[in-house]
Design brief:
about 25% helix; rod-shaped; 18 strands; 8 helices; alpha+beta; four-stranded antiparallel β-sheet; about 525 residues; disordered N terminus; twelve-stranded antiparallel β-barrel
């Protein structure tokens, strides 16, 4: 014996119909509806639910039309021959039965069922719309997932990451469409305009504080990053240097401490120098730049000499001079590509000319005292160097070393009353180290130390060879930089001498313009 579970919608129609029409063949019973509906284990889709509702409505309308036709039939019993008058008086005829109350009940039940079915149909329609919208959303999400997967395949095929900096470069410049098309062929698909990577930068640039160039803008000249290819930088600057020396010289013999026989000479020299420099830099490639510098000097010296012999003699000399200094030209080349946690090495070569006024070309009086000031060294020089930049957030460490070779020269002239022959100016070794730090995208500062060791100078005076002492010049450096715009900044640097032969203080202001 098989048992079936009828659908609830079938009972909504079947039960009232059975109650109204009993076992009529025209009425829809549960047993007949069971055969046409699915079991509860099955699930209705929106289309099936709507079709079931329409079928039930059609059957209900058929039942309603039949019941209305039955109600329209005559409700009175056919007339029979009237009996004898006596019979009528003894037993009056009952009134014919009417079905009007029963028809009204049936119409009310039909109306209730119709309203219930219409409510069910409305709810099924809403469920159908909800299911359709969810299916559309799921399809859209699937399409986006496929696009992301294709993006990933195209990026890996067109721009494989080889170095830690390749990803940042790809973000800044994008992937060319030609490479995307090639990658699409490799992965077996066709390039789509919607999937093509952008040709140029997308979105906003990273914060400028992470840029190495900004962190080292305030470092001393020659320690920063190279000029990009095709970019021209005009870098005017003005520098003020203050130097003062106090020397005491004794020429004679000392018998016992405190008793001296001879001459005592004390000198006090104050030198002020203002140098205006016109510098230009140009990026030949992204790893090679060329630079030229032409300085214009103003010098003012005040020298006071006190000699003690039989009597004290005081002499004071004041000198001023303005002229062109020694012009320079230099090349700087980046040796390696940037890598994470590795320094950037830059090699440099500087050539210094003798365009300034030489110390041996200034005039002297009859006592051999200079009456003018030199604006140059009077010798050519060549300086190879190497420097590095080491990014270490939030700072950039810089440093370097160099060797200045001053080429000897034959003066071959009488200076004062002394003949000067060959002069070999002392070479110099320099080294520096420091760091740059960017406080925000506009302001940065740097701290560092620089030291120069100058070898002795050998001079031929008449038939003798004079040799000076070695000199050590050390200074502390402090710099500040403020970015006025994307192509212009203002830099201010300070140098404080920490050795006896170093200038007391030097202040330099630079305003580079980028084109």
């Amino acid at each position: 014996m098989t048992s079936t579970i009828s659908n609830p919608l079938a009972y909504i129609v079947a039960l009232p119909a059975a109650a109204l029409f009993g076992g009529s063949a025209d009425a829809a019973t549960p047993s007949t509806i069971e055969k046409e509906n699915v079991s509860p284990a099955q699930s209705f889709t929106a289309a099936e639910a709507e079709a079931e509702s329409a079928r039930i409505m059609a059957r209900l309308q058929a039942v309603q039309s039949k019941s209305q036709s039955r109600a329209a039939e005559p409700t009175t019993v056919p007339a029979e021959p009237s009996p004898a008058p006596i019979m009528q008086a003894a037993a009056p005829m009952p009134k014919p039965a009417t079905k009007k109350p029963q028809a009204k009940v049936m119409d009310q039940e039909t109306t209730n069922i119709t309203a219930a079915l219409q409510a069910i149909q409305s709810e099924l329609s809403e469920q159908k719309q909800l299911i359709a919208s969810q299916n559309a959303l799921i399809q859209s999400q699937n399409d986006k997932i496929k696009q992301l997967e294709l993006h990933n395949q195209l990026v890996r095929a067109a721009a494989p990451v080889e170095t830690p900096f390749a990803l940042s470069q790809m973000r800044g410049t994008g992937i060319q469409r030609s490479r995307v098309e090639t990658a699409a062929v490799q992965i077996g698909t066709s390039p789509d305009d919607e999937l093509t990577m952008p040709e140029g930068p997308v979105g906003e640039a990273p914060p400028e504080a992470n840029n190495i160039e900004q962190k080292v803008e305030a470092v001393p000249e020659g320690q920063g990053v190279l000029t990009p290819r095709g970019q021209f930088v005009l870098d005017p600057s003005i520098e003020y240097t203050r130097s003062s020396t106090n020397r005491l010289v004794f020429r004679g013999i000392e018998l016992i401490p405190g008793i001296q026989i001879g001459a005592i000479e004390a000198s006090d020299a104050d030198r002020d120098t203002i140098i205006g420099t016109f510098a230009m830099r140009y990026g030949l490639t992204n790893r090679l730049e060329i630079e030229g510098r032409v300085p214009l000097l103003y010098r003012k010296d005040r020298i006071q000499v006190v000699q003690q012999r039989d009597e004290q003699i005081t002499r004071e000399v004041g000198l001023e001079e303005t002229g062109i200094g020694d012009a320079e030209i230099s090349l700087r080349y980046q040796l390696n590509r940037p890598k994470s946690q590795s320094p950037i090495w830059v090699a440099g070569l500087r050539v210094k000319t003798d365009t300034g006024t030489s110390p041996y070309e200034i005039p002297f009086d009859e006592f051999g005292v200079a009456t003018g000031l030199a604006t140059g060294s009077g010798f050519w020089g060549v300086q190879p160097s190497i420097s590095f930049l080491l990014p270490s957030d939030p700072v950039v460490i810089y440093g370097g070393t160099g060797y200045l070779w001053n080429i000897e020269r034959n003066i071959d002239r009488v200076v004062g009353d002394v003949f000067v022959g060959k002069v070999d100016p002392g070479d110099a070794i320099n080294a520096s180290v420091g760091f740059g730090f960017a406080l925000n995208p506009r302001f940065s500062f740097s701290l560092g130390y620089r030291h120069n060791y100058i070898f002795s100078t050998k001079t031929q005076l008449g038939d003798t060879l004079q040799e000076s002492n070695d000199i050590q010049v050390g200074s502390l450096n402090f710099g500040m930089s403020y970015r006025l715009s994307e192509k212009q900044s203002m830099n201010l640097g300070f140098q404080f001498g920490v050795t006896e032969d170093a200038p007391d203080v030097s202040i330099v202001a630079r305003i580079p313009f980028r084109f």
